[in-house]
Amino acid sequence: LGTRRPLVAGNWKMNGTRASIPVVEAIRDGLTPDLASRIDALICPPSTLISACVAAVSGSSIAIGGQNLHARENGAFTGSISAEMLADLGATYVIVGHSERRAYHHETDDGVHAKALGARRAGLCGIICVGETIEEREQGRALDIVRAQLAIGLPKGATAADTVIAYEPVWAIGSGRTPTPKDIAEVHASLREMLDKLAGEEAHKIRILYGGSVKPSNAREILSVENVDGALVGGASLVAQDFLGICAAY
Ligand code: PEP
């Protein structure tokens, strides 16, 4: 892993109300000082819960992030939330270009680029998501797809402080299916090589997470793959014991 500190990030998606705050409290209380000294833990709840989650983790090392943002700082964009608004609540990260945003909200790689710049502008760390569909994998195009997504999505001058990459094969999200460790290693090595081209000196410091059906039972195998610097966790992040079980793989 070198100098890269692992990041285990939870994406709650559109799940949770104030009744879910005990989940984040249980994660806070269950993360041992030893683990907290070695890994970064992050929860991305729905925007409606960011304030309450920030309050719940205050005094701990757990970070809170958004799941999406509008690229602009403010304006006539009804229903949208800017990076500045997330930062104002105490969020420090934001997920950018999740495959569900790409699929259901028509987000493009150029849009991802603009949003990543918005995150940087507000001092947030953007988690830029890339990943191929099952058809693209079966056609042997997985590497081409994720490399292109990264090349367009990643703003110039990206640093480890403002950027995390997440490789999330679309077919592995919420499906219980995962690529083999060999396939994960191949994609992560390819993304690392692309980062070398795009981010120069900073490339080896930028974390590349794996996401897609990570759970306590497969975390150790996946997180030990070369160039895998942590996990982006959907379903399993809704259950404190499962999220902590994934953290405990480190
Ligand atoms: C995700 O949505 O980012 C994700 C990885 O989901 P899951 O862990 O449920 O597959």
Domain tally: 1
Beta strands, count = 8
Structural class: alpha/beta
Rg measurement, Å = 17 Å
Q: Which range best describes the helical content: under 10%, 10-25%, 25-40%, 40-55%, 55-70% or over 70%? A: 40-55%
Distance between the termini: 11 Å
Bound molecules: phosphoenolpyruvate
* Major sheet description: 8 strands, parallel, barrel
Family: Belongs to the triosephosphate isomerase family.
Binding site for substrate: 11-13, 174, 213, 234-235
Function: Involved in the gluconeogenesis. Catalyzes stereospecifically the conversion of dihydroxyacetone phosphate (DHAP) to D-glyceraldehyde-3-phosphate (G3P).
Protein name: Triosephosphate isomerase
List keywords for this structure.
TIM Barrel; 11 helices; globular; 250 residues; binds phosphoenolpyruvate; 8 strands; alpha/beta; 15% strand
Give a quick precis of the structure.
This protein is of the alpha/beta class and 250 residues long. Helices cover 41% and strands 15% of the residues.
In words, what does this structure look like?
- The protein is α/β, with parallel strands linked by helices and 250 residues long.
- The protein is built from eleven helices and eight strands.
- It has a single domain, classed as TIM Barrel, CATH 3.20.20.
- The chain has helices spanning 21-30, 33-38, 50-57, 83-89, 99-104, 109-121, 134-138, 142-153, 181-199, 216-223, 240-247, and strands at 7-11, 40-44, 63-66, 93-96, 125-130, 163-167, 207-211, 230-233.
- Strands 1-2-3-4-5-6-7-8 form an eight-stranded parallel β-barrel, surrounded by seven helices.
- Helix 1 runs parallel beside helix 11 (240-247), helix 6 (109-121) packs across helix 8 (142-153) and helix 8 runs parallel beside helix 9 (181-199).
- The mean pLDDT is 97.
- The structure holds phosphoenolpyruvate.
